[in-house]
Structures are given as structure tokens and as C-alpha cells.
Structure prediction request, 346 residues.
Amino acid sequence: MARARTERETDIDVVFELENVSVAFDDGDTVVLDDVDFSVRRGETLGVVGESGSGKSMFASSLLDAVVDPGRTTGKVTYYPKDDDPMVITEMSDDELRDVRWENITFVVQAAQSAFNPTMSIKNHFIETFNAHDVPKREGLERAVEVMQDLYLNPKQVMQSYPHELSGGMKQRALIALSLVLDPEVLILDEPTASLDLLMQRAIISLLEEIKEKYELTMVFVTHNLNLISVIADRLGVMYAFEFVELGPTREVLTNATHPYTRALLNSVPNLSGDITDMAGIPGQAPNPKDIPSGCRYHPRCPVGDRTCETTIPTFDSDGSDHAAACHYPERSRSQVPLNFGLGDQ
Prediction:
């Protein structure tokens, strides 16, 4: 198992630390997040990318021990509040987790429509949240109005509306407002723009940048959209076959990726500065969670792999820098997998 570095023993301020964290179904036979060691830094926007089924959403859910039944999270997830004692999320009771969720850490799901009760007005969703967390209704609604205005929503109009009466972009912003109304420290977003058109995607990204600064948030942003994440993320984590294979500052990963999978992934997406004829799909298929390859998990699809890759798990090597990848042959990867992804005018 390739391991990303843990950072609690350094001077880096960490808000989440994962140690040997796995998520499995079918009594452990189906592993969808495998023995992950990872740290999320306070105040950063961490982007997490990878193909569908790579484990991105399971990683995000594990931060709150929120994997749905019959999935099970094992290992240790520790949350370090800014002004309180550390909390071991994976050892907390349901009641304890209920307090942490929304008040400290909130989760914005992919489809806003599914997050709302269609029989309740938006205002009643806020009131229900205030009641669950013992927040006075008047005080809470005043806060809700402020957050909605920051998200360029008309509070009077939105509060009295039912979910189906709002556009997709308005629903997504209303959900973000609901997630911020208790002033959390961490915002976890799982494909928050996936169901929106391109213009609204860009608008949501711009709004997230604004509220991150105003509310001093740490954000974990899970997405398949590399063009969007290149705008907002400070660091980028690339997942393949239920583990991280590359991690580093976003621009460094996008322009100087060292893992062949990251380079292939970048070459498979359209971007404004590149030639569409340079796009190329990734040959082969991602592994079945019940049949994970030995050695480097990418070796069956890798153009630079050899017998070592088939038999030996690569270390997560950083060479002393903040950019690390789990690959036996990073230089061979750079030379044999040309990188066509461009950052445009960013």
C-alpha cells in the first residue's frame, strides 16, 4: 500500500489526520478505500480527483464517518478543531457525531435536490437545523439571511420557496448556505457542480472562493472536473484504485505530474489551452474492488511499467518536496507520457 505522508509531527497545521483508514462492503470483501494515511491542512482547499469509482467519495465520507450502511469505516480519523481538543471521529457515538456535523464540519452533496425534503420550504429546512442544534430560531434566521446574501440569493424569495421552485444553481447555493449557517470550520463538497451548466459551475466556484476567505474555511473538494479544480484548489490529491497515487500543490501536479496515471488522466480531459486532437482516453479499465492488482495497482494499464511494478508496491516518494507520487519510475513517466494539459490564462 502506497502511503501519503502524515504531517502531525511537522510544523504544518493539520485539521484532519487519517491513519490506516479503509472503507469496505460485503463483510470486508469489497474494499472501496484502502488503508489510507493522509492529512488535510487547516485553511487549504484540497482538491481530490480521479476516475469514477476511484474512492473519492468514500474518502470524503470517511472524514465524517458518514459511509452509508452496509459500508464500514475502519482505521482512525482525527479532527483537530482550531480552539478545542482533538476528536477521534471514528470513535464517536452517533449523538456525538450529530453535534460535530454541521457545527464543525459540513458536507455538501452532489445533487442538491436529493438533500432537500420536497414537502418542506427552504426556511423550514433551516429551522429544522436550528432545532437539532439548539440554536435560537431568531438568531439562526438572521445568520441564514447573511449567508444567503453572501451567496447572492434573495433571502425572502428563497426562504418561502420549496426546492422544486428553485433553479439548479439556486438549490445548490441554498444547500451551501444551509451548510454554513452554523459557522463550521470545514466544508466537504462532493461533486457540488456536477449537475450544473458550465456558466453556473464557474459561478459556484467563484462564490466558494469568496466564502472560503470570509468564513475562514478549510475545504475538501471532490470532483472529476480538472479544469474547475485547477481554479480553486491549493493542493491536489489524485486517487486511483481506492488510494492516493499523487499529491502536491495544484499547479505543480497539473504541469509536472510524475505518476503515469495522473499524466494520462490530465491528457484525457479537454481544456481551453490545449488542442482537442491531443486528448486521449486511458486504455484498459479501473480494477474491480474485489480483485485489486498486486504491486502497483496501475501496472495493468501503465505504458512504463515492468516486472517490478507487477510485484512491488511503490513508496509514496516526495524527494523532500511537497509534491509526492507513488511510482517506481517517475522520470520514465515524465519522458514517456507527454503531458498535454494546459492551464490557459490562470
